[in-house]
Amino acid sequence: MSDETYMKLALEYAEKGCGWVNPNPMVGAVVVKDDRVIGTGYHQRYGELHAERNALASCTEPPQGATLYVTLEPCCHYGKTPPCTDAILKSGVRRVVIGSADPNPLVAGKGIQILRRHGMEVTEGVLREACSKLNEVFFHFIQTKTPFVLMKYAMTMDGKTATHSGKSKWITGEAARRRVQEDRHRYSGVMVGVGTIFADDPLLTCRLPNSRSPVRIICDSRLRMPLSAQVVRTAREIHTIIATCSQDETLARPYRKAGCEVVTLPSKDGHIDLRELMAALGEKEIDSVLLEGGGTLNWSALQSGIVSKVQAYVAPKLFGGADAKSPVEGIGVEGPKKAFRLASPQVMRLGEDVLLESEVLPCSQES
Q1: Thinking of the domain 145-357, which architecture would CATH place it in?
Q2: Is 52 an active-site residue?
Q3: Which one of the listed residues 52, 334, 352, 357 is annotated catalytic?
Q4: What sign for the dihedral angle of Cα 126, 129, 134, 137?
Q5: Which of 104, 129, 237, 341 is most deeply buried (CB count within 10 A of its CB)?
Q6: 168 is in an annotated binding site
């Protein structure tokens, strides 16, 4: 079989680490000898052994002379585990096939150099696009030290996220809602504004079996959130961060007593400086954020330039209403030329609904 076939298998294994390895990358590895798979592995949990070591340890026969397929360049530094390059060199593997290079400055081509310097045959770039896409969150985080932000919303075909009375349950069907739960497992954090807490009182957890819930991040510039809110009442079970501009410790104390972490940040245009918030979350190793905010927070996030990707779930319904909510509010852009530009659109059918997904292109609203 071809290198591409075995790399596809390695990608399937890599996906098994989804949601469990953050802020590390998802990595899969396959050991092949005489056109037979003799070992497989993936990075299972943050802080545990990497894919290459797991694959080599699982071999059903000695891997001498075999080929190792790995979706990401092997690490060559000591972190929570020893360098994978050491294990590969000791294994007797003859050839290593790599999907994508690792942009981590501690690796960044050094792993490949070490293997080649020791006489190992290395093939790079097999299914590079798919392997890089798998770790778009890791690539963004390791290079910027700030979370990858996915802005997600559900709307009707006339662009409404709620009726004129504020009701929004449910716009989309079961398949679309399940996909959102999968993303809550995939991403390290989920972020909303205090307006969403007032309107819906959401729990913001992942309700899938055998999953993990993200860190909950509530933007509440003046600390107005009710102490009776579900996110406050469950803060001792699920890590909850309240981002605020308020420096009033009297206001913050009850939230801290309830188990919330209160992070005080500078303000910008009367609201939380979202760039400063992303820097603070990055320092806490929160590598990704699912933004489930309302129109006001979504506008602020776009304006601040923190959004990497947008997901729009579109339901075959019409709400109408001049005062009904829309996904992005705020003042809006002055003209079409100043629109936020999206790229690489993807379309997926989920039951009766459609998921539109696009990357956000960097742009300046001041130009």
Answers
A1: 3-Layer(aba) Sandwich (3.40)
A2: yes
A3: 52
A4: positive
A5: 104
A6: yes
